[in-house]
Amino acid sequence: MKISLKWLNDFVKIDDVPAEELARLLTLKTAETEGIYSKEKYFSKIFTCRIIKAEKISEKYFKCRVISDKEYTVISGAPNTKVGLITFHVKPTGMIDGVTIATKSINGEISEGMLLSGRELGINSDHSGLFKLPEDTKIGVDIGTFTDFYDNVIEIDNKSLTHRPDLWGIYGFSREIKAILGREKNNPELFDPQTIMDLPPFPVEIDDREKCYRYVGVKVDNIKIEQSPLNIQIRLANTDHVPRNLIVDLTNYVMTEIGQPLHTFDGDIIKKIVVDSMKEETNFTTLDKVERRLPAGILMIKNLNTPIAIAGIMGGGNSDIKNDSKSLFLESANFDASHIRRMSTKLGLRTDSSSRFEKSLDPENALTGALRYLSLLKNFQKDIKISSSITDINYNPFKKNTIVTDYNYIKKMIGIEIKNETIKNILTSLEFDVEEDKDSIKITAPTYRSTKDISIKEDIVEEVVRIYGFNNVKPVLPRLHITAPIKNILDEKENSIKQILTYKYGLNEVDSHPWYDEKFLKRINFKLTDEIQIKNPITVDNRFLQKSLLPVLLKFSFENLKYFDQFSLYEFGKIFYNNTETENLGIIIVDKKTKNQDERTFLKLKLIVNDIFEILTGKEPEYKTPFQYQLINPSISSNIYFKNENGESFYTGYIGNIHPRINSLLDKKVVITFSQIDFEKICSYEKSTKFKHFSMYPQTNLDFSLLKNKKEKFNEFENSIKEFKNELIKDTLIYDIYEGENIPEGYESITIRFTIGSDQRTLTGEEIISFQNDFINFLKNKGYTLR
Amino acid sequence: MKNLKENIDNFLKEFNEDIKDLNSLERLKEIEIKYIGKKSKLHSLLKIIGQLNTTEEKKEAGNLINNLKVNIETQINNLKETFQSKEIEEKLKQNSVDFTKPVFVERKGSLHPITLIKRDVDRILTGMGFSLVSGPEMESEYYNFEALNIPSTHPARDMQDTFFLLNEMILRTHTSSCQSRTLEKYKPPLRIFAPGKCFRYESIDASHETAFYQVEGLLVDQNITIANLIGTMKTLLSEIFTESDVEVRLRPGYFPFVEPGFELDIKCIICHGKGCSTCKNTGWLELVPCGMVHPNVLKYAKIDPEKYNGFAFGLGLTRLAMMRYKINDIRYFNSGDLRFLKQFR
Question: What is the pLDDT of residues B285-296, one digit of tens each?
């Protein structure tokens, strides 16, 4: 939304306030301003002139003598250059759109300044010739002295106006400025409808009253399609409109001024206006000559049965004002905001009109819009003949909103002492009606604030405090009671595990999008199963929510392998399936491939997983069976189970090396191991730590090294060692696993450390020797060889 | 007696002679045995006491010998200490480590910058009595919109902002979705904050991401004022930016779940209000959308808005991290790029 300050000055005197100050005040009290465009920073020394001599000096150029404040020689390349033409001339050293115009040589001739087209002036898009001024224009006059050319335009962030339908016109802002500066305000001049009361109404019928609340129409004959007066064009240009002809320009003018979108139809075509929704889909060509497919249910303006406009969005090519139109029918209506928004989104067609209607405009403004248009038109074309009365079909569902509250509430909510009178003055300056009762006040909002903006007492608080000034509210910390904190175990545990992974194991935390990258999935030939699908993915390759953290961590690994040889990544992230989400931990380790690295990397990650389980639950998990998954090597993998106090085992994740077929996609020889842990599930187990008495007598460590056939699974080996029972055992530990020199092929040397002792006494040498012998005998019976 | 004194003199003379050229601890040990050991000269002197007649004489002789013993012992101990410290010094010299030698870490871990900034905000808000709560990323439209007074006709619910899922759920567009969930579960008075990942359907560039982090704050109690909101925000932001007094300003802002709603700006931390590219020459940074909790939000959670009120605020964690670490491109956060990630510890 662009606010021309010269235009705004029509309604409230602001020409004595710097534009920057106005912008600051609007930002602090009304809506965010995004910047100020000052035309004088980019344009200067532009004067009216008349061409008194024009000599064709080449195929393209004319050498002209023009008279402005004095005579100049100017070279013009415009085809419409001719003696007698009145146009604009920029003097040497003047500026056009930020570029300084120097005296320069064109086609071997000196040109003092330049004659200007509409586009060069920034008034319209016409660059076919010089901008033409009327015959009665005074010559040698600065453009700024008789037009609003050198305007300051404040740009407002439209997003900050979504809840303010009253601020979609310059006049609306004059109300705010009036309240902020405490000044008087003028109203736009309106046509007096009484003068045409006796004319017959124009036939208008609203069939869909849910979507159209009000329709005001009037027919005007004997109109002329002509250029708008210069200042109308300049005002429209400064507020981002392209001037076309007076009839159309005035609709934009009124919309920009008071925020009411208008539409003019060719009056000779329209027999009867019918406002109704389409029963079925249809094709329709809008006035921009685009044929559009309209959905069923869309509200249309029809001429009898023929659709002639998409209500509130855009007129049709079959009924708009043409260059030879003699008559117009003016529409100034009010439509259901959410219908307009939905349809404009559906059609992908956003117009000045639709973006206003979708904000819930004040239906009262529909009448004002029509009267303002007539007043302006009559001003510029004295000969028009209004041929109908103001036809006004009104099913307005809105009424002025009334809020009953009291001064104390307002003060209490803001948290400051403020005089009742000050509150009342602020509200009345914003054109609220305030009736004071004994203990309460009844506040009636104006119609243009009643469609959605102001409805509850909190809204009143906002009005008071913003005009009063937020900077006048002293910050105060609340005094509050102590309450018990809400526990968040998951977050706490996640934090402690992040600490371990990062600072103990040297892992790098990553974060990612929750959806798969299907381009990468294709590369690794990953098959999707029943992932949750996104209706409107950001790209066609991001259609599914992830069901595993492995693909993204693998993708990151692939990318990082371009710069690093080995690294470890982890992510705490959600995985999605069966309409639920669970917080999971994914860890991936990438190591350079060397001998035995498959096992080493696998065990490295297993150590980390064990540590996580111990920290969270107090004990290690169980690794039961190989894990079958499309990206995992089935021979180097395992499910991870956790056994609770009742001895029940639960699946909590898996660990495994990446399938060799994935490795073959990489240039570097690496081993990649991945683990995914259902973090929510393991956090649900409580860790219970209880003090255990320890013996006051010395304990002895006894180490035994023995050979184990590598074919025997370790958990089976451990289980058979566990069969050795002796009451002196305090602790058993696999101390070392070794293979290589001095160990027969196919075997590995296992060192077991027993910690033995008694709670009652120091063990005697005989007891220790007897323990040793017992264990050695046990091993013999089991068939293990001692080293 | 006279004999004894002579003996002592000789004893001392000899001892002094012996320790004159002392050059090792071993020699000192020999001297120690020689003079005060079990079979030493001192012991032979003691025998003299037995030969004396009077008790006085015996007493005097005992004193003399004892003094001699203490004297010798002290000297030997002093010498011992000297030797020992010399020896330690000697060892220290021989056994030095070049402290400038480099050390190697196989893997240097890092925390995601969001984790770092979140911890900081957690610490501050927890200290101010707020409790951390979390909510799902896959959210119902009810908690993301309706319960926050955003009816189905509201522009914020358009396709262009929200990721919709085929299972009728959405990806939450803000952590404000935790408001109603918390209000339903824990009745007021309450003070909570909800950090988490949010999703917006928009095109990605250096300053826009489809997935980013926010922290929602909510306080519901009795007689809470706008002045309280400003005071709390000022304190929070002063802590976050570790400045004694961050200058803030409030502007009107519109969010359906607060009324009145504000945009809270802080004086630009780069240029201190003079105007620079970070603040687009305004001198202010738009930072915290906030406001007084809309009565409808309380009503949805079956809380009486006549009895309770409060305020809510939103902080962009990703934005804060970008400001704190001067990260110029938001796309790094979800890139998994170690060249970026390794910088944050």
Answer: 889 999 999 999
